[in-house]
Design goal:
By secondary structure, the protein is of the alpha/beta class. It is built from 18 helices and 15 strands. Helices cover 47% and strands 17% of the residues. The N terminus is likely disordered.
């Protein structure tokens, strides 16, 4: 699908809008209002970021770097263009740093203007070109796989503790032993997967422990569930989630540096620190695994190789190794949803039996032959 005609005409003539600026796309998305321009510094925009920008209703995206480098088939640029959102790439780090958050800029072709003067120029992305580049990127993945394997082995050699050692955990109010654990990341298809698990009866029947990884806590609240634990650096966790009553665990890097603690201290929330290598998602899975959980169900996480590449080299290596460690009890939410809804639950079976008995009772009361038979049996038994 190409840009809609009215969007193409608007872009050709030029338009004005307020621009919101942040180097981290996930931090920018909650601040965006419909019609604003998103200015990001995001190489290879991933699907989750693009879907967030589309949902926010942005009128355009400025990127300091390349939205699609061709190293692997990152889907973000394609999704933005198909949604009719102009993307201007490679405006440069200098121009990006000079953009004032909330200021009004005008877009005329590839040129960005501020205060009536030319501010910078970029490269407007074309949908046809992006589709061709994506095809080439899919073919280039084989080379990335070799780098991925090398990086993973190097990571394991440098930091074997990820596999060989357990976390040093503070007191956890929730007992994991022999419980199922739902770990929620606000990533790929998280809304769909959470909705499926809830509708299937899995959540109400199994009552799993609910762990929100950063914004995953808000994902749980969106579907009417409250997290038991929140793990992460807390840069994208809402105040509502912090007030939900969940136990808060700040992920600290090896050595004790915990960037997320400053925000919680400023807001006056009590928290515990978990020090460990890898991502916050890795820490959440390891907490459940090392706590002897029966099963870990993962929502919104990375499943395809392209999604692993979206995490960056270091992130994908740690997550890959963590999944190796917890693989004996780890399942993806999509599989659980499909399997669980095919089962006949005991509650449903009991209701079916009760309904049948009730129906027989009604027939016995209103049908004369049946009443006569029951009366005869009663008299015989009484004799």
């Amino acid at each position: 699908m190409r840009l809609r005609r009215k969007d193409e005409e608007r872009y050709r003539k030029g338009f004005q809008a307020a621009v919101r600026v942040d180097r981290r796309t996930k931090n920018l998305i909650p601040r965006l209002r419909a019609g604003e321009i998103a200015a990001v510094h995001h190489e290879d925009i991933d699907r989750v970021a693009a879907e967030g920008l589309i949902a926010a209703g942005v009128s355009a995206v400025f990127n300091a770097t390349q939205s699609l480098t061709g190293k692997y088939p990152a889907q973000g640029a394609l999704l933005l263009l198909r949604a009719g959102i102009p993307v201007i790439d490679e405006i440069g780090v200098s121009a990006f740093n000079r953009l004032r958050d909330g200021s009004v800029v005008s877009v005329e072709g590839n040129e960005i203007r501020a205060d009536g003067t030319a501010f910078c120029r970029g490269k407007r992305l074309d949908l046809s070109d992006i589709e061709i580049r994506l095809e080439a990127a899919r073919e280039a993945v084989s080379g990335q796989l070799g780098e991925f394997a090398t990086n993973t082995l190097q990571y394991l050699a440098n930091e074997p503790e990820l596999i060989t050692e357990d976390l040093e955990l503070p007191t956890v109010r929730t007992t994991f032993a022999q419980r199922q654990v739902l770990v929620v990341v606000r990533g790929i298809d998280y809304r769909e997967d959470l909705g499926t698990l809830k509708r299937s009866g899995y959540v109400s029947e199994m009552r799993p422990i609910l762990i929100g990884v950063d914004g995953g806590a808000d994902a749980l609240l969106e579907v009417g569930l409250k997290p038991d634990l929140i793990v992460g650096d807390f840069d994208s966790v809402s105040r509502e989630a912090l007030d939900s009553g969940a136990q808060l665990f700040v992920h600290a890097y090896p050595g004790g540096e915990a960037p997320g603690s400053s925000r919680l201290e400023r807001l006056g929330f009590h928290y515990d620190v978990v020090e460990g290598m890898g991502t916050s998602e890795d820490i959440a899975m390891r907490m459940a695994f090392e706590g002897s959980a029966e099963l870990i169900v993962l929502v919104g996480s990375h499943t395809s190789m392209a999604e692993f590449f979206d995490k960056g080299r270091r992130g994908m290596a740690s997550t890959f190794l963590t999944r190796m460690k917890v693989s004996s009890i780890l399942v993806d939410a999509k599989g659980v949803g499909r399997l669980y809804r095919t089962q006949v639950r005991k509650r449903d079976l009991a209701l079916l039996v009760l309904s049948a008995l009730f129906t027989l009772g009604v027939i016995a009361v209103v049908t004369e032959p049946v009443r006569l038979l029951l009366r005869t049996l009663w008299l015989n038994l009484g004799m």
